[in-house]
Amino acid sequence: MVAGPVYSRKLFSILNPTSINMSDNETLRTIAARRSIRLFTDQEVDDIVVTSILTAANQAPSAHNQQSWRFVVVRGQKKAELASLAVSRAGDFPKPSSSLLRMAARSISSAPVVVAIVNTGDLIARGENLFKLDHPGVRDFFRTMEIQSSAAAVQNLLLAATSLGLGSVWLGILFLIKEDVRRFLGEPEGEFMAVIPLGYTDRSTKGPNKVPAEEVTRYLK
Ligand SMILES: Cc1cc2nc3c(=O)[nH]c(=O)nc-3n(C[C@H](O)[C@H](O)[C@H](O)COP(=O)(O)O)c2cc1C
């Protein structure tokens, strides 16, 4: 029998606020505080804040350290055009996708700045060589590695934004119009990953409840 991974009970004791106070630890406090924010105040977000957030995103782990992501900062007229693009394509999809695209457009319009993340496709192109792999599923493997790497960068970005007092939301629905978005962003190739409006908020939100970690965990010994 092949032994499976053993998840440490200690991890849960660290994350469980009944045993360790999450507010005692800056990282855990930020993780607990992060919630999706979809509407923002008019307060500007300085470039220096955006740069710090992107530095944190860029610090994420990535398969073979390839960092096969690109960040595109969208402001002003281009941001208005991105929102219009989402609205103009919403009618091509049934509900609820069409409504989610319109909601995404509202968040983009409301935020002072938007960051788009695009996978470059470099890992897919170079992976076979890098990993010395020759397998029928090789493209799928490297595409998955690219997506997972960029997802780590997105989560770093969201946490860094939270830590600096900003609200954010990961807009995945734009994947439905991913080729339009990629072209709009001026990325020659690769694949859309996420669009993230960033801004300050004057509302506090608890966000939806989470299923307790214990309910989605099994221990193998
Ligand atoms: C991959 C991914 C795609 C998402 N896409 C959207 C989206 O298109 N629109 C939206 O409003 N929220 C989107 N979200 C945010 C989720 O709705 C949100 O994370 C979830 O409801 C939990 O709430 P919380 O972020 O406040 O914990 C997305 C989140 C993830 C991880």
Report on the structure:
- The protein has 221 residues and is of the alpha+beta class.
- The chain has 2 domains: 1-33, no CATH class; 37-205, NADH Oxidase (3-Layer(aba) Sandwich).
- It is built from 8 helices and 4 strands, in the order H-H-H-E-H-H-E-H-H-E-H-E.
- Strands 1-2-4-3 form a 4-stranded antiparallel β-sheet, sandwiched between helices.
- The longest helix is centred in the last third of the chain and has 26 residues, at 138-163.
- The radius of gyration is 19 Å and the shape is globular.
- The structure holds flavin mononucleotide.
- Flavin mononucleotide binds next to helix 5.
Structural class by helix and strand composition: alpha+beta
Helix and strand string, N-terminal first? HHHEHHEHHEHE
Assess the beta-strand content as a share of residues: 5-15%
What is the helix content?
A: 40-55%
- Roughly what is the average pLDDT, rounded to an integer? 91
Radius of gyration from the CA trace?
Answer: 19 Å
How many separate domains make up the residues? 2
CATH hierarchy, class of the largest domain: Alpha Beta
Report the CATH topology name of the largest domain. NADH Oxidase
Largest sheet: 4 strands, antiparallel
For the record, the CATH architecture of the largest domain stands as: 3-Layer(aba) Sandwich
CATH superfamily of the largest domain: NADH Oxidase
Our measurement of the CA-to-CA distance between the termini, rounded to an integer number of angstroms, reads: 12 Å
Uncertain spans, ≥5 residues at pLDDT below 50?
A: 1-7
Shape: globular
Number of helices: 8
